[in-house]
Amino acid sequence: MVTTQQKLKIYLERIKKQNKKINAFLEIRNENELIREAKDIDKKIKEGKGGKLAGKIIGIKANINVKGLNASCASKVLKNYISPYDATVIKKIKQEDGLIIGMCNMDEFACGSSGETSAFGPTQNPSAPGFVTGGSSSGSAAAVSANFCDMSLGSDTGCSIRVPSSFCGVVGVKPTYSSVSRYGLCDLSMSLDQIGPLAKNILNASLLLSVIYGKDENDSISQNSKKIDLKNLEKVPKNLVIGVLDFESKDKRIDDLISEKIKKSVEKYGWKIKKIKINHLDLAVETYYPLVYVEFFSGTRRFDGRRYGKKIEDFCGPEVLRRILGGSEITKAEYGGRYYYKSLMAKEFFSKELAKAFEKVDCIVSPVCPKLPHKIGKSISIEDMYAYDALTIPYNLYGNCALSLPVGKIEGIPVGMQIACDKFEDEKLLQIARSFEKLS
Amino acid sequence: MSDFLFHEVSEKEREQIKKQAKQIMDDFSSKLSKIGKVKEPLIERDLCMRDESEGTQCDFSREIMFENAPNTLYPKGHEKGTSKNKDFIIAEKKKW
Q1: DSSP state of B59
Q2: Catalytic residue list contains A136
Q3: Residues of chain B found within 8 Å of residue A114, distances taken between Cβ atoms
Q4: Distance in angstroms (rounded) separating the CA atoms of residues B86 and B78
């Protein structure tokens, strides 16, 4: 059996050789400190006292506070910011003997769907060289894909775990809103943000999620929910009705890959399928972005130069600035409920649509992304960039759980299938995904 | 069309971004009119109340926190972190 120390050594060597090119990690912890911790974990494992995550090496998105490390949010604004505390998810990981290896690259302040907006350079896609990784948890997905760590944490506001997972060919889970504490997460949009795991497979992603899941006094919206029992994941659910989203991707080959996977599940497990139509699905992007602009503008007022040294508007890149200036403009012009209120009402509309849909089916399946990724640095319109999130956003608006599962490749580029279940059905979601995973 | 790679933003680009952002929001808002009237959700605040508790002890590292605020001022005659006001960040005046 490979020890934590041996595995750590392999990962560190690989990171030393390849991270300069891939740019998945922004910071790696002190090597001696890591080796000492790995040694302690191996000792615990030997004595049978290791926690649930003993032996697992984990990367953390740079917008989650890890005491003593640089939670830069991939921005020059927080380039010198050292976290003075651990986020709740980090405390839980440490309690279960997970070994945190470093901080992962991301879109600046999580503003981006491609992984290109980081102030420290874009992340390269290890599974599809030259193409974007997807964002904003670009480094978290790339680090797992490049075998720099076993698993990682990301955050998902509109697509930020699922899209990079899809483009990098890994598993990424957006848990139910409020099921995982966000205490210690630098927020993008507080009514939508959620922390979740990324890993090579469903079992590892589930393991990490089971550790971070649950209520936390420090996050007022977090709720008590049924614990995830990992033993249940190998059971294939019976009499399942799969909802197939009524939607046509820009690239038909993506839909074909998903259909093939669904067909296999029907043949092998006897599951039934039902087409699901979500009214006004084409307006999900239009609903989401005004909410994000306003909440992000509000949240960034703390970066005024007093507490963190640098004023955000003076040091950020164009996408962050677009959201701040846009948020500021529409906040000023909000009278009559023209922007934010209107989006809140549209969010309510989507919530009702999805609640109705989940009464008819056990899960809804679709592509994660309706198109393949573009090449790094290629000029695309803002609308095209925002369209990457078209199929992931609805589930952030409703607040239910959803994940990305790799189902194949098109021209060498990984494609992810999105599976979504109702709120707090995270265990069922993982069980369904595991059943799909076993088909390959 | 624009590339999304990070770069420093010039004053000219800043003005363009501002106009562009407002334009996008106006466009989105107008499209959302298609959805029509939606009944406001009922918010039952009693169910969201937190239980009274003693609270938890803060285990922040004060030293790191003050290091993160390089522009803070300290009362005259006091070294960084040694003043009576060491629990406060006193921001620089007229600099923002």
Answers
A1: -
A2: yes
A3: 4
A4: 10
B contacts of A222 (beta carbons < 8 Å): none
Q: Distances from the Cα of A333 to the Cαs of A33, A164, A294, B36, in angstroms?
A: 52, 34, 11, 21
Of A121, A280, A318, which is closest to B9 when you measure between CB atoms? Answer: A318
* Alpha helix (H) residue ranges in A252-333: 252-269, 284-299, 312-315, 318-332
Average pLDDT over every residue of A66-84: 96
Q: Check: CB of residue A388 under 8 Å from CB of residue A371.
A: yes
Contact A117 B56 (CB under 8 A): no
* Beta partners for residue A145, in sequence order: none
Burial of residue A298 (number of CB atoms within 10 Å: 0-12, 13-18, 19+): middle
Interface test with B, best of A70, A85, A311, A328 (most B CBs within 10 A): A85
Mean confidence (pLDDT) of chain B: 75
Measure the CA–CA gap between A294 and A280, rounded to whole angstroms.
22
End-to-end alpha carbon distance in chain A: 26
List the single residue in B17, B50, B64 with the smallest CB-CB distance to A220: B50
The distance from CA A44 to its chain's CA centroid, rounded to whole angstroms, is 31
Q: What distance in Å separates the CA atoms of residue A414 and residue A261, rounded to the nearest whole number?
A: 14
| Residue A64 C-beta-side C-alpha neighbours within 13 Å | 32
- For the stretch A227-274, pLDDT in tens is 999 999 999 999 999 999 999 998 999 999 999 999 999 999 999 999
| DSSP states of A245-269 | E----SSHHHHHHHHHHHHHHHHHH
Place of tokens 């004053």: B11
> Quick check: bond before B2 cis, omega within 30?
no
Structure tokens at A293: 């602009």
What is the spatial distance between Cα A367 and Cα A217, in angstroms, rounded to a whole number?
36
Judge residue A16's burial from the number of C-beta atoms within 10 Å of its C-beta, 0-12 exposed, 13-18 middle, 19 or more buried.
Answer: exposed
Write the pLDDT tens digit of every residue in A104-159: 999 999 999 999 999 999 999 999 999 999 999 999 999 999 999 999 999 999 99
| Paired residues of A57 in beta bridges | A99
A85:B41 CB<8 A: no
